[in-house]
């Protein structure tokens, strides 16, 4: 039994060591409809990569809270990633332009970044230090509906980092809709 727990702990701990990031993300910024390149190897600040969906009610319910966190933590670079291959670009662009997110949402063609990082649901957050170390991954909070959340995992992680404390829960469960590949 002790060995099984050790293996389980090792598996959980090693999940936080997600695959290394690619050097850059090239894609359409769905908020403005233009091609952009985001350099991921030279973080200037704490960076939150957030996998989002144009159709998922869970993802949509968290958009206003994410916009608020981006305002509250202006030194954190927020980047939305849209990887769902079953949501076409015109539909997604229309959704994200109307969402009023105050950070870019990049189209991840063929879900390559989602595959590389292991993102499987929306919204799924990966929070990286300026040197590229994964500090937190998982759901934004403990509810499918942001208005019903009672635990705020991403906010807690950002506050801990802001206060120079360890992230209290570096990996949490992701709730939401599956990313269609």
Summarize the structure.
Helices cover 31% and strands 23% of the residues. It has six helices and nine strands, in the order αβββααβαβαβββαβ.
CATH topology: Glutaredoxin
Beta-strand residue fraction: 15-25%
- Assign the CATH architecture: 3-Layer(aba) Sandwich
> Could you say which overall geometry the principal axes of the C-alpha atoms support?
globular
Oligomer: single chain
Strand order of the largest sheet: 5-4-3-7-8
Please provide the ordered H/E string of secondary-structure elements.
HEEEHHEHEHEEEHE
CATH class: Alpha Beta
Q: Give the proportion of residues in helices.
A: 25-40%
Low-confidence parts = 1-14
Number of domains: 1
Distance between the termini: 37 Å
Structural class: alpha/beta
Describe this protein's structure:
By secondary structure, the chain is α/β, with parallel strands linked by helices. It has a single domain, classed as Glutaredoxin, CATH 3.40.30.10. It is built from six helices and nine strands. The strands form three sheets. It has a five-stranded mixed beta sheet, covered by helices on one side. Strands 1-2 form a two-stranded antiparallel sheet. The longest helix has 14 residues, at 2-15. Mean pLDDT is 86; it is low at 1-14.
């Amino acid at each position: 039994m002790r060995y099984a727990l050790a293996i389980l702990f090792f598996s959980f701990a090693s999940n936080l060591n997600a695959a290394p990031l690619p050097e850059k993300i090239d894609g359409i910024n769905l908020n403005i409809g233009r091609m952009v390149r985001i350099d991921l190897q030279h973080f200037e600040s704490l960076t939150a990569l957030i996998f989002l969906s144009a159709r998922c009610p869970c993802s949509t319910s968290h958009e206003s809270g994410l916009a608020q966190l981006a305002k509250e933590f202006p030194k954190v670079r927020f980047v939305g990633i849209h990887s769902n291959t079953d949501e076409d670009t015109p539909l997604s662009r229309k959704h994200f332009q109307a969402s009023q997110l105050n950070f870019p949402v990049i189209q991840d063609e063929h879900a390559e970044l989602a595959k590389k990082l292991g993102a499987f649901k929306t919204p799924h957050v990966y929070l990286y230090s300026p040197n590229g170390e994964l500090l937190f991954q998982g759901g934004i909070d403990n509810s499918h509906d942001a208005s019903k959340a009672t635990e705020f995992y991403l906010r807690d992680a950002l506050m801990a980092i802001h206060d120079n404390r360890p992230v209290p829960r570096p990996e949490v469960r992701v709730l939401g809709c599956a990313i269609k590949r």
